[in-house]
Amino acid sequence: MTTPDYRPAEIHAPYLLFLGDIEDSVSAKMARAVVTWRPDKAVGQLRMTGSTVSVGIEDLSIAEAVARGARTLVIGVANSGGKLPGHWRDVIVEAIRHGMDVASGMHQRLTAIEGVNELARDKGVTLHDIRHSHPPLEVGNGERRQGTRVLTVGTDCSLGKMFSSLAIQRGLEEAGVRARFRATGQCGVLVAGEGVAIDAVIADFIAGAVEWLSPAGDDDQWDIIEGQGSLFHPAYAGVSLGLLHGAQPDWLVMCHELGRPHMRHLPGRPMPEMSACIEANLWAARVTNPDVRLAGFSVNTSNVDEETARRELKTLEERFGVPATDPIRFGIAPIVHALTGGRT
């Protein structure tokens, strides 16, 4: 298997990040991904109401953004189910009329919105359905392949697997290690400019898609593969399992959020017990790599004060014998140190 040479159509910057009228900050992860990892590409944000979530950049209208050079309206939202609310259509149409491309990571295609495809064609603009842009894929084969691979996994969905993967990749590069971020979600693809949104791949081809994303490489080449979902989430466990098999990871990094009361979108389902979650992920990963190990924990501690965060991280470290850190609050260095055997 050769190194991937497929690239989705280029999404031209600068972007205007459209947040619709969402009030759930977690759903704004497309916009937050751009602001955090590619801030130079965002000219502003567009919100429909005063109570809409903000990602901390200037509010602009479509006309104002175009005057500042914006070329693409990016739907900055990834909601449950991936459906574009019908009342957002007018904003999308206005952007197209102003000559802007439109990029979306939703399951529902932009081209399926009444009149949008025809208008885009008339105006000569491009519609980017990020989740549905990938090459023909094969089923996975599970054959051992050269190179080193790290996969982020989680106790739940939407708790920092993409952020952790990008932080690890950057940390390894700063330590002199050749490392590539392999995007498997629509936010990651937007940041990286390439990848496959795994949750839009037919189930039989999930493992094969990840094998394609992270093919055999040199011994000193590291692939940091963005995880998705959780083995313990009833809605998304299938995607998580396919990733574990296709990634053939040498290392797992467990992502978690302190204080999360229940699985996302499922108030009646408690968060899994940590040791059971770790063992389930290691057990599944051993199907394609019997030597897989846990490298550490990447934990979102934003819901607690610093003293509590340090205490909880220390408890994880003492219990499981691997480093635990919050990559935003305390940096990713402990995990990079563990991955490289203390060479950093």
UniProtKB/TrEMBL annotation:
<protein>
    <submittedName>
        <fullName>N-acetyltransferase DgcN</fullName>
    </submittedName>
</protein>
<dbReference type="InterPro" id="IPR035086">
    <property type="entry name" value="DgcN-like_C"/>
</dbReference>
<dbReference type="InterPro" id="IPR035402">
    <property type="entry name" value="DgcN-like_N"/>
</dbReference>
<feature type="domain" description="D-glutamate N-acetyltransferase-like N-terminal">
    <location>
        <begin position="55"/>
        <end position="132"/>
    </location>
</feature>
<dbReference type="InterPro" id="IPR011669">
    <property type="entry name" value="DgcN-like"/>
</dbReference>
<dbReference type="InterPro" id="IPR027417">
    <property type="entry name" value="P-loop_NTPase"/>
</dbReference>
<dbReference type="Pfam" id="PF07755">
    <property type="entry name" value="DUF1611"/>
</dbReference>
<dbReference type="Pfam" id="PF17396">
    <property type="entry name" value="DUF1611_N"/>
</dbReference>
<feature type="domain" description="D-glutamate N-acetyltransferase-like C-terminal">
    <location>
        <begin position="139"/>
        <end position="336"/>
    </location>
</feature>
